[in-house]
Amino acid sequence: MTMTVNEFKEEMKQRLKEKYAMDFKDASPQEVFHVLGSVVKAYYSDAWSDTWKDYLRAEQKQVYYFSIEFLPGKMLKSNLLNLGILEVVKEGLAELDFDLEDLVDVEKDMALGNGGLGRLASCFMDSIASCGLPGNGNGIRYDYGLFKQRFVDGYQVELPDEWLRNGNTWEVRKESKAVDVRFGGQVWMKEMADGKLKPVYENDRILRAVPYDTAILGYQNHIVNTLRLWSVEIPASQEDQYRSIDDRRQFEDLTAVLYPDDSNEHGRRVRLAQEYFFVSAGVQSIMRYFKKLNKPLTLLNEYVAIHINDTHPALCIPEMMRILMDDYELSWEVAVSITTKVMSYTNHTIMAEALEKWPVELMKDALPRMYQIIEELDRRFVATYSGVWDADLIQRTRIIQNGQVHMAHMAIIYSHSTNGVAKLHSDLLKEVVLHDFYVLFPERFNNKTNGIAQRRWSQLANPEMAEVLDETIGKSWRQDSDDLKLLKNYVEDEAVLTKLAVAKQHNKQKLASYIKEHTGIEVSPEAIFDVQIKRLHAYKRQLLNLLHIMKCYFDLKDNPQKEGNQRVFIFGAKAAPSYTYAKAIIKVINECANLINHDPDINGRIKIVFLENYNVTLAEQIIPAADVSEQISLASKEASGTSNMKLMLNGAVTIATLDGANVEIRDVVGDDNIVIFGMTEAEVYACYESNDYSAMKIYEESPILQRILNAFVDGTVPNIQYEGQAVVDSLLKYNDEYFLLRDFASYVAAQEQIDRLYSDKKRWQQMSLLNIANAGRFSSDDTVMRYAEDIWQIEPVEKYTKKRT
Ligand code: 26W
């Protein structure tokens, strides 16, 4: 039975007294937040222990989702919603003169990820538990998450994200579950008395991996799964190995900070050590659990599925081999067949610079036993497939090439499934990027189009819209987002269209006051809120968005009376600190904003707002207020995208290229309810083929492009001496790698179509409604169910949920 308001208030009073010896009238939001955290934890603790006891009793097969990034954001409201006590707590706090929102503001974002990959992992955690699937997350407990972004004079400045400053109320330190992880040194195989070969380690360094568990609550189903994040410590037994604090810090810093790159692997030693650290700790703890089941190791894959989220955890493969051979003395053949059946891999990007290739010397030096096993994995692959397949194919697909260890090759060859994250992306993997592997293992390749946790991105982020949905189609959509399609029946219902439009307007007013407070910029909620929120990357083409804005600017300079809706162009984007060009684009956007937002001739007709420190919580504030969703990457480059799904779910109309999941959004919403432009991926590849693209030619034939690009270098846009030149050079001197100038004209035409559509109020409201109605397709509940059926072969604990409700 859920807790009553009075029971909640009593619980809070008692715990506040216990923890801080004070009454509510003297308590700060920080203190009340921590007390609330302990009340909530106590509330789900039974379900947490019952859940894993049931998994053990039922010998339930479980999936372990290995990811070097998780991006939960804030967890308080999501936990309250999934426990079904959000309203009770809101009311109880109000009666104690506290506003839940003030406590939410206290909670720090858990930003242990860069962007799409990390957030997807967290959406999956929520969905796995909400679908009653036995699953666990395995990652790193960074002391510092993704940097805080500040704009200083329009430049991105990075500040440390000290998210653990006031402790983390949701984690439980599991000292007793700590394990040792070995690094460095030398390893040689010694023949033992029984003739078996055993590895002998010398001069290696042993570090302690201590797990911190966070509960992952299912949606009102009493299922509580676990997210295990590992933190490094110097083992007590090794104290004497460290002469100085510096010496210690060198190792204690292993899990100190998240690498802020989301598409460029730098081959840093600490990054490799991080990858091995959480992999070894995770696989060891899984094998420790499996031991409890007393099942033959050859049946491991009937009880354990390990998912490798991009290549960062690919060392799971040699680590499992190490444990099966070195600890359990299995033969290579048996070990490799078990490992391949247990492992599955997801690819999230086709960008060459993002595919990890570790230098052999670095791997050999940092992880000698891993390298020995990888070398053998490579040798046996070549031995097994040579003679069967064309030698060049084998040379192109083998793991070790030109002194580098190709992590994706190992993940594909020694796992039973490789999937892409959207239909187009998965097809490109099969036909282009990983074609050689598709030839070798066609049955392993499959697609699993991404999804989003609709509870967070609609019920929590947009309660006003959620209420209109309840009133209109009932509440079933909250349990099964497929029921959103019931809304289609109201596309002609003026009252419903108006209610949704009012909810959107209120969200825009809320965001307008946030913008005013944080940037000082005044924006009108009547304007079109045009939103592009994602990491700053050249292929995502935030610059193309800016080129269009500059055209609008010059059009209004030439003709201030020009027809057209007011527009607010909202950007949210962090650039990897080492990504100089991306940082130049941020500066140029901020200086254009300064120019346009203060130009009397423009008089507020168009505004640019670049909000600092884009993260999960800011996304939850921007997305409900969006009218237009910018998904304008060069076709073939964005594997899927997930902000596209979040904006669609909140009634934004998408302007998009046929890239990633935009294609599937178009398929489900229909050409009338989306605005498509630009080259297709086939045209992009044809352009590579013909290799005759000339950005300069397009520039010379386009007066508006000349005016815009010249403005970046002739002082029209001030304070971008260097950055403006860098932008113009990337387009004209280095021939515009992502075909911005080629897609410019059709993008401008698409934006004019958006303007016309927005002016037809009912038409726009209907498009907005149909985007919401069709967004249920992109629920991560459905996505994880497909992973469960096709890849992990795990089942929801049906009988469990039935029994408990
Ligand atoms: C080695 C540095 C590094 C770090 C992170 C390389 C690559 C990554 C990630 C794979 C990049 C990423 O986040 N990819 C995004 O994954 C999302 C979830 O599947 C997709 O929706 C995005 O299209 C894809 O860019």
Automatic annotation (TrEMBL):
Q: Which family does it belong to?
A: Belongs to the glycogen phosphorylase family.
Role of this protein: Allosteric enzyme that catalyzes the rate-limiting step in glycogen catabolism, the phosphorolytic cleavage of glycogen to produce glucose-1-phosphate, and plays a central role in maintaining cellular and organismal glucose homeostasis.
Q: Give a single Pfam family match.
A: Phosphorylase
Give the matching SUPFAM superfamilies: UDP-Glycosyltransferase/glycogen phosphorylase
List, alphabetically, the InterPro entries matched.
Glycg_phsphrylas, Glyco_trans_35, Pyridoxal_P_attach_site
Alphabetically sorted, this entry's keywords are:
Carbohydrate metabolism, Glycosyltransferase, Pyridoxal phosphate, Transferase
| EC code | 2.4.1.1
Taxonomically, which superkingdom?
A: Bacteria
- Entry protein name: Alpha-1,4 glucan phosphorylase
The record lists the catalysed reaction(s) as:
[(1->4)-alpha-D-glucosyl](n) + phosphate = [(1->4)-alpha-D-glucosyl](n-1) + alpha-D-glucose 1-phosphate
Does Transferase count among this protein's keywords? yes
Q: What class of enzyme is it?
A: transferase
Its cofactor is:
pyridoxal 5'-phosphate
